[in-house]
Amino acid sequence: MLRTKAAARFEELRLLVFVAGLLVLGYVAVVASAAATFNATPVVVPITFLGLALGLHLFLVARGVRGDQLLLPLALGLTAIGLVEVQRLAPERLALQQLTWCALAAAAFVGAMLLPRDLSVLQRYKYTWALLGLLLLISPLLPGIGREINGARIWIGVGGVFQFQPSEAVKILLVVFFAAYLDEHREMLSAPPRRFGPVPVPPVPYLLPILAMWAIAMVVMVFEKDLGATLLFFGIFLAMLYVATGEAFYTLFGAAMLVAGGFVAYQVFGHVQARVDTWLAPFAEETRFGPSFQLVQGLFAFANGGLFGAGLGNGMPERIPVVWSDFVFAAFTEETGFLGGLALLALYLVFVYRGMLIAVRAPTQFLQLLAAGLSFIVAFQTLVIVAGNAKLIPLTGVTLPFVSYGGSSLLTNFLLTALLIRISDVTARVRGGA
Amino acid sequence: MEITFTVLLWAVRIAFLVLLYVFLIRAFSGLWRAMRTEEAVAARPAGIAFLVVQRTHRGGPRSGDRLPLRAVTSLGRDAGNDVVVNDEAASAKHAVVSFADGEWWIEDAGSTNGTVVNGTKIWQRERMHYGDEIQIGRIGLRLEQA
Fold first, then answer.
1. Phi then psi for B41, rounded to 5 degrees?
2. FRET label pair with A219: which of A81, A282, A362, B129, CA 20 to 30 Å apart?
């Protein structure tokens, strides 16, 4: 297959100019605020990042990719905002680490654009991907490589420095598996041979692998104490099931299962109980300076921001513990105000909407489900963490896609972006036009 | 000096917020254009390529008919197929034409009398080019671009 004929991507390039502007202005603002003067030394990070961004753009041009031109600038723009926030919030070594992760994410993006050569490989070896996902999921529980950080055993470490959160990569594998499986059995699931009133009853063997996958994910999550990922996996699972079958009953039933499971977990597990209690009454005398301190400080940050914000580099977000990973949204909103927070959310909206458009246009059902599932990952994750920051739902430790400090998350999100662009590229080729 | 610094710093901060919105608006307009083309595409006749009937027999599809292809199109005598080939020599499920990895492919679906492409019987999934002719029973179909 020939893909080496270069094709211009002007829309992407134009949007990247704004990404560059955002990064430079943001960087100047936070660095100058901290140093109380303008100086030119910390430009290494933005320059390197812009080099990476331009590199990715030129790579797509050189490969002649005719797919979507919005997603890459959006992803890079959000990552640029993330870099600004890391520079603002975290000690300096984290900024350099995040830049290193950006380079690795860019490499992963390039890799996912080249391999596999044919996306149907994802469909054909679906059980392989499911198995791989399962292995990754339980890997933090293994002695030797597993690491427990901040009360959640969701990391694997090689040596002392390098740490990776495998549940991030599992999300993509899970979506690939669901897409392939639901595509294969969609008819049986959406038009089951038997019905009891509104209740569709598909033959049990068809539901078993999906339910097993879900149950294992749940069990492992409970043992790894990663509530955010549990919520994400389940949300993605339900959304894809609904998209594939159009049966509202599955979704309602699943939501009821989630509520029941949540209730049981609340009764049985101390860490779940603590999360819910601090959510219900964060300002309670006994928790205000203890378990709910982070949430309380985050809420003060929102309040301090007001409509226009305190000005980038001018707020006090460093008073929130671990602000660079869990509370980036609160920090960004404090300093750029409601206006900034709204714009950030709108950027996610554009990203997800674009992903859904790609799903609608995709030529096969598998690619449609895959694109929809990948978009759901970004949508749910943003929803869960932003709503958690704003005390709308109990706080769970998931990252704000592209923006939060964190390598595994960044890597995964760039893989996801690459896959979406490839799906839109296939669509453009099938349709032979724009 | 102190005041100039403060003013400049605020100018940078405000410029950041403004630029954030300009970026957002540009992204939105990109999305808007994509949706407009989507509507235009939806208004176009269905099909990304066609099988054009070349040879037929009495009671078969009319010669010159353009049968639209989807990403996966099943051919056969059964009425459940995407393209119904009502020839006695055609099997109920005869062949599948699909689009994958930027190419068109044809595969025999286990038919009794086989599928012939450009005069050669196929034994596995074969790549197709525009202008190739499929023969199923007495019916000849040519792959053409939309």
1. -65, -40
2. A282
Q: Which two tokens stand for residue A95?
A: 């900024």
Q: pLDDT value at position A147?
A: 73
Determine whether the interchain pair B37/A25 forms a contact, defined as Cβ–Cβ distance below 8 Å. no
**CB-based burial of residue A175 (10 Å sphere; 0-12 exposed, 13-18 middle, 19+ buried)?**
buried
Residue from A3, A11, A39, A308 to probe the interface with B (highest B Cβ count within 10 Å): A11
- Amino acid A94: pLDDT: 82
- How far, in Å, CA of A94 to CA of A75, rounded? 20
Contact B101 A1 (CB under 8 A): yes
Q: Considering only CB atoms, which chain A residues are within 8 Å of B69?
A: none
In the structure encoding, which two tokens stand for residue B61, read together? 């599809």
Tokens of A167: 């549940």
DSSP string, A214-264: HHHHHHHHHHHT-HHHHHHHHHHHHHHHHHHH--HHHHHHHHHHHHHHHHH
> For residue range A186-233, what is the model confidence (pLDDT) as tens digits?
777 776 667 777 777 777 777 776 677 677 767 766 777 777 788 888
Minimum distance, in Å, between the CA of residue A27 and any CA atom of chain B: 10
The predicted model scores a pTM of 0.79
Nearest CA in chain A to B38: A361
A122 CB-contact burial (10 Å; exposed 0-12 / middle 13-18 / buried 19+): buried
Contacts of A7 in chain B (CB under 8 A): none
Closest among A77, A73, A98, A74 to A87, alpha carbons compared: A98
Tokens (6 digits) for A40: 């030119």
Q: How far apart are CA A377 and CA A235, in angstroms?
A: 9
Strand B83-84 with B126-128, pairing:
unpaired
Are residues A394 and A275 in contact, defined by beta-carbon separation less than 8 angstroms?
A: yes
Instruction: List the one residue out of A222, A235, A213, A211 whose CA is nearest residue A135.
Output: A213
* Closest CA–CA distance from residue A118 to any residue of chain B (Å): 5
Q: Which of B38, B138, B56, B76 is nearest to A360 (CA)?
A: B38
- Chain B: residue whose CA lies nearest to A352: B31
**Complex ipTM, two decimals?**
0.82
The amino acid at residue A36 is A
- Mean pLDDT confidence for A149-170: 71
The pLDDT value recorded for residue A1 is 39
Please report the residues numbered 70 through 89 in chain B whose beta carbons come closer than 8 angstroms to any beta carbon of chain A: 70-72
**Are A22 and B71 inside 8 Å of each other by CB?**
no
3-class secondary structure, A338: helix
Section A265-288 average pLDDT = 84
- d(Cα A95, Cα A42) in Å, to the nearest integer? 10
Characterize the bridge pairing of strands B95-100 and B72-76: antiparallel
Are A419 and A412 in contact by the 8 Å Cβ rule? The answer is no
Kindly compute the dihedral angle of the four CA atoms of residues A107, A110, A113, A116, in this order, to the nearest 10 degrees.
-50
